[in-house]
Structure prediction request, 89 residues.
Amino acid sequence: MRTARFEFRLDPDVKERIETAAELVEESASDFARRAAVERAGEVLRAHQATVVPSSYFSELLAALDQPVERNETLTRAAERARDLIKRK
Prediction:
């Protein structure tokens, strides 16, 4: 059941375009506008929920992950200090 409302104002010529397009596909203007808004929202959400990188970047990342770990003394000391602080609590 549809209970939420969404209202907006638009120029008369835009309203006429929407109504004409809706008639062509045998939909009401509100169904046509609703469907268009839902489709556009899906496009925007999909574009912002995924990170797309070139395949060469992905290949370089996998190659870097396959390399042996190099110990970083500064990070090792920082992790040890953090561990000590957690133990004290």
Observations:
- The helical segments are 12-24, 29-49, 55-66, 73-88.
